[in-house]
Amino acid sequence: MTKHLERDLDLLQRDILTLAGAVEEAIYKAIRALQDRDITMAQEVIAGDTPIDNQENHVEEECLKLLALHQPVAIDLRRVATILKINTDLERMADLAADIGERALVLAHPPTVPIPSALQRMTDLTTSMVRQSLDSFVNLDARLARRVWRLDDEVDRYNDDIIQEIILAMQSSPDMVEPGLSLFSAVRHLERIADHATNIAEDVVYLVEGEIVRHRPEAVEAER
Questions:
Q1: How many CA atoms lie within 13 A of 149 on its CB side?
Q2: What CATH code is carried by the domain that includes residue 109?
Q3: pTM (2 decimals)?
């Protein structure tokens, strides 16, 4: 690896981690706004989506410049390809966080729909998946990445249980239908964030091992 390529890869790593930090904060604030019915925080998340979009564009442009200038091969090429994929997943997580913020704005007004107690556990698990997927990328830890895959099944179970609780609440009272649908959407957005964390984990395995494991459930089962 030339010194110039090494420098540009280091800068690219810095840029993607800056984006990751902003996205993690957006997810945290979006869920807090939902649970606390905090209009100000929800608006911050929504407004913060544009800077995140700009950072995503910057990372993509830097990846393309690096590919054109240095024509990397082997592990260096896989790193750039992985960062391009992670960049997309992070931006979509931010979009979902903004969507949760919009639902939080609706839920901040009456009628008040009860927040299922399991939502906090689902939130904790999802944010842990996001953190661990990024840690696996930073540390090139394929084993940690595979652990993230297994957590996704648990998030899906929480999602199903919470959705069922929301449906029962809507069935019990017509007044709960509109806020219930907003909460339903927010929970589904949170579940999708976990899916994107899983995508990042899969990309880390590709980076470390050179194996494409997306859409291959047997790769996960082999690690159980």
A1: 23
A2: 1.20.58.220
A3: 0.93
